[in-house]
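Lesson 9: reading folded outputs for more than one chain in a single document. The general rule is that every protein is listed as its sequence immediately followed by its C-alpha cells, and records are never interleaved. Here is the first one.
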Amino acid sequence: MTKTWQDYIETEQLPEDYQIMADAIGLENTIRLAQALSGISIYLVKPEKLFKPFKIKYVLDCYRHACPEQPFNHRRLALETGLSVREVYTIIEKGKKVEI
C-alpha cells in the first residue's frame, strides 16, 4: 500500500483551530476544507443565530399542519429545536399576526 503525504499528518501537530475542526469533521474533511478555502478567513456565526430562522419556519409549519392525529405540542417542539417553550409560544403568536 502506497502512502500519501496526508498519511504523515498527525492531528496533534496541526494548529489548534485545525485540531478542533479535525475532531468535529475528521482529518480528511479538514484537509479538503483547507485546500478548498485556502487563504480565506472564515467567521462561523453561532449555531443559535444561524439556524433560528429555520427553526421558526419549522415551528410555524408544525403548528399550521397540526391535526387530531398529529397534535401540536409546544414542549416537544421546544426540546426538539432547542428553543424555550416561551419562544415557541411567541413564534406562534407572531405567526398568527402575520397571517391575518
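And here is the second record, again sequence then C-alpha cells.
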Amino acid sequence: MRMNSRNRQHTGRHPALKAALLIAGLLIASVAWAALPPPTPAQQQAAADKKAKADAQAAKDKLSLAASMDAVTAHYRTRAAQEGWKTHPAVAVVAAAPAAGAAPITAAGAASPPPAGSQGAGNTTAAGQAGVNPAVKSEKLGTAPPSEDVKKGQTRAQPKNAEPTVQKGTPTDVSKK
C-alpha cells in the first residue's frame, strides 16, 4: 500500500528526543538550584519579620471581616424582626484549635451585640462563639436515638420448603388471547 503525504499522521517529536530534553532541563534546574548560596542570618531575620507582619495582618483582617459579618447579620436580624420576616436561629460555629505553638486569636474588636431573642449575630467572633453550643447528635456515634426507619430486629429466616415471595418467570398475558 502506497502512502502519500496526506495519509501520514504527525505524531510529534520522537520519544527519545523528548526524554533528552527533559533530562537536560532537570540538569540545568539542579545546577541553578545548587548554585544559590544559603541565606545569611540577616536575610533569615528579614524573612521571619516579613512572615510575622503578614501573619499579624492576616489575623487583623480576619477579625475585621468577622466583626463586619456580625454587624451585617445583626442589622439583618433587627430589620427582619421589624418587617416580620421569618428567621432561624444562628448556627453555632465551633472555633478550630490553634496550631501547635501558635497563640490563640481572640476577638478584641468591636463586634455588634446580638439582638434580643437570638442566639448570636453570626457566631464568627470568639464572643459570638462563646454562646450556646449544642451538643452534636449522631446515630453513627451513638449520641442520638436511631431513626424510626431503622430495623428493630433481624429479619426472620423462612423455612426451606416455603414458597418464594416473588414468583419468577414471565406472567401470562391475557390480553393476547
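What the second record shows: The CA atoms of residues 64 and 134 lie 26 Å apart.
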